[in-house]
């Protein structure tokens, strides 16, 4: 039978590989830039963004503004090292809900396939960032 104390001290001394950490930061930076870009678009380019939200069935300007600021808060939660892991997990969950909802909204109005590309691409960035973050978390 193995000694649990030895196994625990061995696993605690392991660190995530440098490649995993670098890949995590690349995917997370790209994901966060995309989220900040969409938040900026939704907040600053008002007529186009408002029209796009209305076309997707979200007529309330308050929802667009709330969603944009939630994206900014989520990006801050992901990038700041002092944010607890539980809060980062919630930020990832919120982004997942946002991205799935965007895909559903486009599909529900039978939008052209090209309109799914931004949300689908951002979803791939989200997935890589999240799964690499979870891998790093195993070693902390």
Summarize the topology.
Blueprint: H1 4-13, H2 18-44, H3 46-55, H4 61-79, H5 85-108, H6 117-137
Helix pairs in contact: 2-3, 2-4, 2-6, 4-5, 5-6
Tell me the fraction of residues in β-strands, as a range: under 5%
Mean pLDDT: 86
Largest sheet: none
Class from helix and strand fractions: mainly alpha
| Number of domains as seen in the coordinates | 1
Number of helices: 6
Evaluate the radius of gyration.
19 Å
> Any low-confidence stretches, pLDDT <50, length ≥5?
5-11
Subunit organisation of the chains: single chain
List how many beta strands DSSP finds.
0
What is the CA–CA distance across the termini? 26 Å
Order of helices and strands: HHHHHH
General shape: elongated
Q: Roughly what percent helix? A: over 70%
In short:
The protein is 79% helix and 0% strand. The chain is mainly alpha-helical.
Key terms:
0% strand, mainly alpha, 140 residues, 79% helix
Question: How would you describe this structure to a colleague?
Answer:
This protein is mostly helical and 140 residues long. It has one domain. 79% of the residues lie in helices and 0% in strands. The chain is built from 6 helices and no strands. It has helices at residues 4-13, 18-44, 46-55, 61-79, 85-108, 117-137. Helix 2 (18-44) packs across helix 3. Residues 5-11 have low confidence and may be disordered.
